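Provenance and format

Records in this collection were gathered into a single text stream. Each protein contributes a sequence line and a C-alpha cell line. The two records reproduced below are adjacent in the stream.
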Amino acid sequence: MNIYRHILQRVTGRQIKTVTFDIFDTLIFRHVSDPLQVFSLIDSSIFAGHRVPAPDYPSLRVHAEALARQLYNEREDIQFEQIFSAMPFSPALRSALALAECEAETQISVVNTALVDVIRQLKEQGIQVAFISDMYFSAAQIREIFFRGNEDLCQLPLFVSSETGVTKQSGKMFLHVKEVLKASPESWLHVGDNKASDVDAALAAGLDALHFSPAIDVHFITRMEMALSPEPGVSGAARTLSCLEQPAHSEKGGAEYIARDLGSFVWGPVMQAFAGWLRAQCEVANIRHILCVMREGAFFTPLLRKYFALQGEDCITVESLYVSRLSAFWAGINTEKADWLEQAVDTLIHYNGYTLQNFADDFYLSSDGFGSLSPSVCLRSAGNMMVDGRTLRQVLLEKAHKNSARIQQKVATQKSLFLRYTRDILRADFGDCAVVDFGDGGTIQHSLESIFGSPAKANFLFFATNRIYRFLNHTIYSVFLPPGGLYDRIADRLARSPECIEALLLGSEGSTLSYVDDDGKVRPVTGRALPENSAFCDAFLEGCLTYMDMAHKMELPPPPTSQAAMLVKRYLMMPCEEEATLFAQLKHQDNFGSENEFYVIDEEQKTKLKTDSARQQAVALVTSGGAWQKGELHWPAGVLATEDKNTVPRFMGLLKNDRQQAINFLINRMASLGWQNIGVYGAGEFFVALAPSLRAAGIAVSHLIDRKAGLGKHYQVAGYTVVSAGAALEQGCRRIVIASQAFQQEIKDTIMLEAQKQECCGIEIIAPDDEQAGIFPAGV
C-alpha cells in the first residue's frame, strides 16, 4: 500500500469529512532540486541593457523577497508583486521579471497525477476537498500557472497565505479555513510535505495530519547536494514522486522502505546515468551482447534490461554471468608459465578476508602444521609472520609445491568446466560480448580474457581505480567514473568505502566458488547466501526501477556523468541518518569466496569514533580522502551519521546559514534544558519559521522582542505584539532565545546592556551559534 492508498484508507477508517492538501511538493512538483533554482532559469536576454548581470539575479531575487518580508510585515505573508516592488528596477523591468518567473515555473512544474486521482475518488465519496498553501502567489496565479486549465483542480477551494494574511506555520490558516468551510477538526485530515507547518501545526490545531514525504530525509539530501553543486540538478519531481509511489511507503522507519527510497531518490538517477552511458558506448562499438558479472549482475541485469526496454532498444541482450574473482582466478591461471604457482600464492595471500583455512582448502592441505597460527587468521594481515624460523610465505609456497600436480589438475578442470558453462549461456562468441562489473580493479574481466584466450569486445566498469592499469598490456577498460582527479576523485573515494553500496548490489546469493558437472550440465557452485539481505536488496532494486519508469514517463534524459558523480559524492560524504542506519542492518561478504560476514556499520565501529580525536580523524578522512582504517571502518561518514548527520557538513561550513538546522538546534537545546516559557529576540523571517516548532514542542512565547519596537514602532508578527528588550526585562522575562542567524553577539550585548541598566540578574540566552558554547551567559 503506497501513500495514496493510505490517504484513502485513513479517510475511511477515521470517518474523515474534510481533506485539505498542501500544494507545493504535494500536488505540484518542480524539475529542480530546490525551488530557489527557478530563479536561475530566467531568460538572460531580459537583462540586456540593465545594470544587473544575469548570473547575479538569483541572489538578488532571494534578497528582494527577504527585504519585502521586512517592509510588508503587518501580515504573516507577502504577495508576489511586493517582492518585485523591493527591486531597484523600473516598473517595466519588474513586470517583465515577474512574467518571466511565472513562465519559468510553468515550464518546470508538474502536477502529481496520482494525487489528482485520489482527489477525484474523495470527491466521488462526497468528501469536502480544498487546498491550503503558504505561498506568495495568489489563488488565481496558482490556478493559471500550475493547474494549467485542469478544471477539476481549478474548481476546488484554494486558500493562500498571500491573500488571507495568515499562514499554516502560525496555525491561523487552519482556523480561517475552519470558519470558511465550516469544517470540524475531529473529522478533518490535512496532507502535506512540511513537517512543521503541515503536520505539527495541523495537529496543534486539532486536525488529523499525514506527512506526505519519503522515508528518507530528502530535504537534508537536497540541501547538501546544492551545497556541493548550486546548479539545477536532477529533477526533484521525478525523484520524490517515484519514492511516493513505492509500496507501503507510509509505514515510516522500516529499513526496507528506506532501501526502496534510497533506490528511487539517490541511486535511481545515478544508475539511469550509468545505463545511458552504457547504451551510448554499445552504440559506438556496435555491441549487441552484454554479460553482467555476478553477484552485482543480480542488480545490473534487470536494471539494464529495464532501461533498454524503456528506450525501445531490442537489439541488445543482457545476461548474468556467474563468475567471481575466486572462480575466475582458478580457471584463468596459465600453468604453462614457470612461476604460475608462486604467482597464484602471492595473489591469494594479498586478498582481504582470505584465511589460512581458505588456503588449506584450496591447496588440499591440513590447516595444522603452521605453528601457532589459527586457521581463521587472515593471511594478508599475517604476511610478515614467521613460522619455525621461516616467513609464512615460504612455508605456504613449500606446502603448495607438494600438491602442485593436483593444483594443476584443478586449474585445468575448472577452466574446462567454466568454458562449458559459458558455452551454454552465451548467445555469441566471447569476443562479441561486453562484460559489465561494478569495480574497481577489473580483476574478473582480465581473468575472463585469460580463460578465453582473447579479449572481450569491451570491458565496462561503473568505477575504477588506477589498479586497472596493471593489466594495461592485455586488457582495456571503459569506466563510467574513472580513476584520478576527474569528478573530485570520486572513484577513489568510492573505492575506499565500496561497502556503502555493494551490500545492496550483491543480492542475497552467495559468491561463485567453482563449477561442477551435474548430470552432463555445468552449474556454478555458490557460497553461503545472505537471505537476511534479500528484502533490502529487492526493495533497493525496485526503487531504482521505479525511478527509471518515472523519468521515462516525464521524458527526462539520463543526467550527465558529472551530475551523477555529485550525487554519489554527497552520499559517500554526507549521508542522512536513514541512509546510514540502513547499513547497520545489512551484512556484507568479501567477493573472493570468503565466509567472513560483517555488518557494514556496527557498534564496534561506532565505539571507535566516540572520542573527539577519532572523529576528527574520520572527518579529515571523509573530506580529504585517504585509507585510514580501511577494512575496519568501512564507511566512516556513515558511522558518523548514525550519531549526527551534520558532523561532516558542519566541518565543511555548509550549515553556517542553514535556518532549519538552527531551528532544530534551538528546539533540542530548549528541550534538554526544560525551558517551557521563553522570550524570543528577533521578529523576522527566522521567528516566523521557528514559531510552529515552538508550538509543537509545547514552548510558550511570553515576549517577542525586536530592536524596532525600541524605536517607537508598534506592530504584531504572527499574532505576537513586538516589544523592546527593556520592556520584556521589566515584565520579568529572563530566558531569551535569539531568533536570528546574523548579529547574534550584538543582540546578546544589547540584552545584557539593558539588563545592567535595570540591574537584572539570572538572564539566560540561547543563540543558534551556541552549539559549542552552551548558554551565554549562564546565570548572570
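Adjacent record:
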Amino acid sequence: MESVRAVDGLAEDAFDRTARLALRLLNGAGALICVVGDGGQTLKYRAVQAALGERGWERAVGSKLCAEAVVSGRPIVIDDMHDHPAHADPAVAGSDVRACLGAPLLLGEQPIGALWVVDVRPRSWDQEERRSLERLAVSLMNEIRLQLYIAERNRLYEQAAAAAVAERRRSRQLRDLARASVQINAAPSLEQALQAVTDHARELVGAHQSLTSFTTDPVRNYAMSALSLSDRYAAWRHVKVPAQGEGIFLLVCQNNRTMRMTQEELEAHPAWRGFGSYAGKHLPMRGWLAVPLIASDGQNLGVIQLSDKEDGGEFTADDEAVLTQLAQLASASIERAANLENQYEIARTLQRNLLPRSLPKQSAVEFASRYLPAASRAGVGGDWFDVIGLSGGRVALVVGDVVGHGIHASAAMGRLRTAIRTLADVDPTPDELLTRLDDMVIQMSAESGADAPDQTASAPSAISRAGLDTVDAGHDVEANVGATCLYAVYDPVSGRCSMARAGHPPPFFVAPDGTAAFLDLPAGPPLGLGGLPFESVDVELPEGSLLALYTDGLVESRKRDLDVGLETLRSVLTEPVDSLERLCDRTVQALLPDPPADDAALLLVRSHTLDDERVASWNVPADPAAVAGIRTEAVRTLVAWGLEELEFVTELVVSELVTNAIRYGSPPIQLRLIYDRTLICEVSDSNSTAPHLRRARTFDENGRGLLLIAQLTQRWGTRQTTTGKTIWCEQALPATSELSPKAHAA
C-alpha cells in the first residue's frame, strides 16, 4: 500500500522517539513499533529494550502479534504469554517475553501496525497503562499524518510550479507560432514562404541549422529549398550542394513520418548514405530532426530539417511537437503558394486562409456565415467575420472590411482579426476595443511607409457611409491602411448585446414576433483616422432573435444603389425559413446573383438565453467567516445540477477566489456559477486591480492559490467591469452531465 510505504519512509525519528517514551512511561522491559505491509509482511521495526536478551523477541512480537493487531484493529493485552495461543509459535516461545501490551496504529480508519510494550515476567496491565499506550499511538499517528500532509502539499506545490513554468514556455512558443503563421501566410511567393518557414523553424526550436525543401515529383528531387544558419555556420551560407533526394530524406518524404535521431543513431540507420562525393563541401551535422510537409490530399510537399541544437543537447519530444505544429501551419501556405500564378491568386488564397474555416459552437448563439471573394482581381480585398467565445458564457461577434485591394489588404485583414481575438481575451467594451484597434491601424499605416492610391481613394466613400460627411476633406489620411468594423458582445445570462461600429453598415435585427429594423447605432469613424470617439449601445435580444452582420459588398454594387440593397436584405431576412444555413443561401442568391465585384461577408446569428436554473449567484459579505457558508451553498448547487464530480475543485476555487476578494478586493462581492458547456465560476468585486500568477517561495504563506486554480481548471482569467473586476475560471463538464436542449441549442 502506498500510504504504508509513505509512513515507512517518513517516521524514522518519530518511531524511535515514541518507542523510548512508551518504555519509560510503562516501565517495561522492551518497546517495539512495527508497520505491516501487503500480505502481512512487516516493513518496519523500531525496538528499544532494557531487560531483554538478544533472542529475537522483537521479530517474534513484530510478526505474529503485530499482524493480529492489524487484523483486529483493537488493542492487544497479554498478561502472560504462556496463556496465549501465540506461545505455540516457536519464535515467540523461544523469546524472553511473558507479557505484551499493544495499541494499533491507525492511518485514518486503516490499521497499519502497532505500538508494543513487553515485559519478561507475567504482568497485569491496568486500565491507565492501556489508555496511556493508546494515547501514545494516537499521538504518533497524528505526527505522521501531519508529515504526510506536508510532504503531499510540497509535492503539489512543486508540481504546480513546474507546470506553470512549462505552461509559460508553451505560451511563448504558441505566440511565436502564431506570429510565424501570419508571416508565412503573408509571404507573396513560394520562395519567401519557404524561407520564412526555415527561419522560424530554427528560431522556435533553437538550432544552428535549418533546411526546408519543396519537392515536385515521386522521386522527391528538390524543386526549391531554403536554408537558415546561425553565425556558427556562416562559412556555409553560400555553399550550394546539389541534393540527390535519396536515403533518409526520401524515407521521410515517402512515409510522411517525423524522424528524430542523435548523430550516432543517424549514422547507424540503414537508410543513411551520408553526402557521397559532396561530403567535403557539406556542413557537418550533429543530430537530426525532420518533419514532413503534407498537402491537403495527404501527398508529401517536402520536409523541414533541423540539425545541431544551440544548447548542445539532443532534440526532444517537445522540439518535435513544436516543429510538427509549424509544419502543419506551413504546409497549407506552401501548397497554395506553389499553385498560384500571380499576385491576385496569392492575395485571394491568403485571405481565404485567414478567414475562419470552422468556428466552435456556442451555447449563447447559433450562427451561419458566408464569405464570397471578389471575382475581379482588382476587387480582392479584406472582408472578414468571427465568432469568439468569451468568459461567462458570452460571445463576441465581429464583421469587418479592410479598405483597399490586393495582398496588402488581405494581410492587414489577418492582422486585424488576430488583434481582435487577442484584445477580446481581456474583455474590453466594444467601444474600447475599437479604440485600441484604431490605434493599431494607424500604427500599421505608419509602418507601411508607402502610399496606396487604391486604398486612400476608397476612404472618402467609407467616411460618407459612416455619416461623417462633415469631416474635413483635406484631412491628411497619410496611412495606406483603413478598415471598417462592427464588434458586438452578447451575454446569454442577461439577454443583452453591447455593440459598437467603426464606419461599418448597421446590423439588421429581427425580433421573435417578426418586428424588424436596422439598429440605430452611432456610426463612428472608420478605423485608421484617429482622434474621434466610438460609442457602445446595449440592445435587448429576446430568446430566438435574429441578428445579421454583413459587409458593404453584400448590399452595395455598381449595378445597385445602397438603399435598394438594404431593402432587399430586409425583405429576405424577414421571410420564414427553417434554418440559418438556408437563410444564408437565400440572402446570397437574392443580393449576389452574379460573382461580386467586391468581397462580401455575411454572419447570421440567432440568440439564446440560459435558463435561470443554470445560473446561481450570491452576494458575499466582506467577512472571512462567510466563506464556509458560500462554499456550502455552491456545493448544494452542484448537487442540484448533478455535477457532484466537480465538488472538490469547485470548493477549492470558491474558497480561493472569495477569500482573495474579501482580503484584497472591495465590497460589494458576488459569486456566480453558470452551468453551460463548461462549469463557470465568477467572483466579482469593486476593486479594479487584477491578480497575477507568481511563484511563491518555499516559506511563503500566500501566493499559491491562483497557481492551483490554473492547474485544476480548464482555463481562467480576469475581466474589467464598470464597477471593478471579475475573476473567472471554467471546468470541463463530466462526461455523464447533460445540458438541457435550450442550454445546448447552439
